[in-house]
Amino acid sequence: MRAHHHCEPEGLPGWPAAQDAHAPQAASGKRAARVDEARHHGHRQGTYPPLPPLLDDAVAQLVHGSPALLTELVEQYGSPLNLVWPHLLRNNTRKLTEVLRSHGVNHAIFYGAKVNKSQAFLHAAVQEGIGVDVSSLYEAADALAAGAQPARLCATGPAKTAAFLQMLVAQGSLISIDSREELHDLEQCLHTGTSDHPARVLLRYRPDACASSRFGMGAEELRDCLGRLAGRQAPITVEGFHFHLGGYAVAPRVQAVRELLPWVREARRHGLALSMLDIGGGLPIRYVDSTAYEMFLAAQDGGHYRHGQVPASFYPYGGPADASTWLAQLLVSPCADGLNVAESLRTAGLTLAIEPGRSLVDQAAISVFRVTRTKPLAPGRCVVFVEGSSFSACETWFGSEFLVDPLLVPADTGQPLGAMPQPCQAYIAGHSCLDDDVLTHRWIEFARTPQPGDLLVYANTAGYQMDLLENEFHRHPMPRRIAVTRTAAGGMDFSPDDNRPE
Ligand SMILES: *Cc1c(COP(=O)(O)O)cnc(C)c1O
Question: 296 CA distance to ligand 1 centroid (A)?
Answer without folding.
Answer: 28
